[in-house]
Amino acid sequence: MVDLEAGGFKNLICTYVIMGKKPFLVESGPTNSISTLLSGLKELDVKLEDVKYVAVTHIHLDHGGGAGTLLKFLPNAKVIVHPRGMPHLVDPERLWPSSQKVLGFVSEIFGKPEPVPKERIIPVTDGIFDLGYGAKLSVTETVGHASHNLSFQESINGGIFTGDAAGTYLPEFNIVVPTTPPPFYLDAALASLDKLISLKPTVLYFSHFGKADNAIERLKNYKLQLQLWANIAKDGVGKKQSLEEIRDRIIAEDHVIGQVLDFVKSHRIYSKTIMENCVRGFIEYAKQKQGS
Ligand SMILES: [Zn+2]
């Protein structure tokens, strides 16, 4: 695992380097962290020309935004991505303004994506990649957080690289909190969690951030947490409550977020992403459901 230290923040976003016969990367990370990733690869003795694949769980700036920049340093690598994410890697001109709108100043911390040449992309929704030494990595479509999130399960320990399908793990507290910025698809997210549970993972490798045990219990708890936030948002939207009012109710009713509240509130990035964007994801979903 390489801590990408985006914006100088440790434990925020990482790239996983699977040391198969050829190194296999999960997540490029954001554009502004590519130099940190390259130093990390050097420390791991990874030869840049040996890297064959960079799998991105989805194309949000912090996960796949740096793919175009990274490929300039990896002459033989291809990017694995969901087909719905592919057009945005080839031409990030639309992704950038929409990311700026949702993320605000955080988009500047991550940096503007550079395009990925089309011929260097492998679009997948399932399938198995051979890592060598008898190990495999299988692809599972886990949409919800994004319309195009992929997860990857390795066959050595049965661990799953979840991208943002299973929430944000705060290793300092051993706690998972939602990552549900708009457009968030609750029903799809819950179905994806069921899918992940059915794969019987032993551990979860969170892109935010790190390896966590008790995988199945964590996935089940995350489902409950999403349902709780969704119920509060639905009720709040019905009562025409503001984002702040709905957020305060979530804080009061979710004992999990309660345990990390001071940390999240004082964190420059999480205060924006978790306390604002993730609540808004539920509100917009509730409004959309109400309208339909
Ligand atoms: Zn993310």
Topology record:
Layout: E1 2-3, E2 14-19, E3 23-26, H1 34-43, E4 53-55, H2 61-64, H3 67-71, E5 78-81, H4 86-90, H5 95-103, H6 105-110, E6 121-123, E7 127-132, E8 135-141, E9 150-154, E10 160-163, E11 168-170, E12 175-177, H7 186-198, E13 204-206, E14 210-212, H8 215-238, H9 243-253, H10 255-266, H11 270-291
Parallel strand pairs: 3-4, 4-5, 5-6, 10-13
Antiparallel strand pairs: 1-2, 2-3, 7-8, 8-9, 9-10, 11-12, 13-14
Helix pairs in contact: 7-8, 8-9, 8-11, 9-10
The chain binds zinc ion.
Zinc ion binds at residues 60, 62-63, 164, 179, 208.
Report on this model:
With 292 residues, the chain is of the alpha/beta class. The protein is built from 11 helices and 14 strands. Strands 1-2-3-4-5-6 form a 6-stranded mixed sheet, with helices on one face. A 6-stranded mixed sheet has the order 7-8-9-10-13-14. Strands 11-12 form a two-stranded antiparallel sheet. Helix 1 (34-43) links the parallel strand 3 and strand 4. Helix 7 (186-198) packs antiparallel against helix 8 (215-238), helix 8 packs across helix 9 and helix 8 (215-238) crosses helix 11 (270-291). It is globular and about 55 Å long. The model has no long low-confidence stretch (mean pLDDT 97). It binds zinc ion (ZN). Residues 60, 62-63, 164, 179, 208 line the site of zinc ion.
